[in-house]
Amino acid sequence: MTALANHRFLKMHGAGNAIVVLDLRSSRHIVSGREAKAIAEDPRSHFDQLMVLHDAVTPGTDAYLRIYNTDGSRAGACGNGTRCVAFAMLDDPAMARPVECGSLTLETEAGLVGVKRVADRSFTVDMGKPRLKWDEIPLRDPFPDTRRIELQIGPIDDPILHSPGAVSMGNPHAIFFVDRDPEAYDLEQIGPMLEGHPIFPERANISIAQVVARDIIKLRVWERGAGLTLACGTAACATVVAASRLRMIGRQATVSLPGGQLSVEWRADDHVLMTGPVFLEGEGTFAPEIFSGLAP
To answer: What PANTHER family is this protein classified in (predicted)?
Structure first.
């Protein structure tokens, strides 16, 4: 029987991004992709991202995070999930441990992430520096300018979408800027076609963005490994960076997603800060039967 049976978890969301937070500090168990997928398939614990806390690895950090998508694959970063983790580590009676202030430093596969409480249930996450070179994102082809890359969908003389910006915020992103409401595009069909395109060796998050004003962007996101989601923090950050590089906006914008709004700033020091809310839906324990088909 897996060590996760009957283990407590928190069900949360950040601007609509469904998050499950699992505390495995003081445990040696590493969640497998099959376990993560089984957790996601149970309606009681379904998630867009599973945020798993482990004991800190690097001195000066508060915890190590492993992040899983719905299909069991791993993600390097999740801004909405990081805010939820911060709330759990600071406020949840079972997970909270003494800290000197309302700030935490967490470590992920993509590097160190700082998070700070700015209101009762609002946090700012320092998502670090965007990666803009083709081999850092990564892309298959050596594009000298990733502000717009050669990719389109639809007829060659009248494409539905074309020339996305490419950015990595710990996860690779392709952002298509459009003049119409993003809701007018069938992202549920387009997303899976482009997520695994050969140009993206590690797959990619696919976004459709409309710049409504110099400081407002409307966004929809197909997340690699999770599908169509109500919000994606790294996509919001990548979109602000991509729009700013094209001089469509300044270096700060409110990003409106189906699940809520996020405030994103690309600072002069090249760090991207994202501020948004967290919501606690409840808690539960993993039913042993959801793991019954997994090998011990």
So the answer is: DIAMINOPIMELATE EPIMERASE, DIAMINOPIMELATE EPIMERASE, CHLOROPLASTIC
Which residue numbers are catalytic? 78, 232
Residue range(s) defining the domain that contains residue 235: 152-270
**With contact defined as beta carbons under 8 Å apart, do 248 and 234 qualify?**
no
**Is there a single domain that holds both residue 14 and residue 122?**
yes
Q: Could you state, in chain order, the average pLDDT of each consecutive group of 10 residues for the chain (296 residues)?
A: 88 93 95 95 96 96 96 93 95 81 90 93 95 98 97 91 97 97 96 96 98 97 95 97 98 97 97 96 93 74
User: Is position 33 annotated in a ligand binding site?
Assistant: no
Is 69 annotated to bind a ligand? Reply is yes
| Residues 172 and 96 occupy one common structural domain | no
Dist. CA 79–CA 233, nearest whole Å: 5
> Rounded distance, CA 56 to CA 38, Å?
26
Query: Is 225 assigned to a binding site?
Result: no
Question: Is the domain of 22 the same as that of 109?
Answer: yes
Specify whether 78 is located in the same domain as 24.
yes
Orientation of helix 233-245 relative to helix 79-91, angle to 10°: 130
Here the CATH number for the domain that contains residue 243 is: 3.10.310.10
Phi-psi region of 282 (alpha: psi -120 to 50; beta: other; left: phi over 0): left
* Model confidence, pTM: 0.92
pLDDT at 296: 55
16 is in an annotated binding site: no
- Whether 138 maps to a domain, the answer reads no
Cα angle value 127/262/178 (rounded, 5°) = 100
Q: Quote the pLDDT of residue 292.
A: 85
135 within some domain: no
Is there a binding annotation on residue 79?
yes
Q: What is the pLDDT of residue 294?
A: 79
Domain count, the chain: 2
Q: Measuring CA to CA, which residue among 139, 116, 118 is closest to residue 126?
A: 116
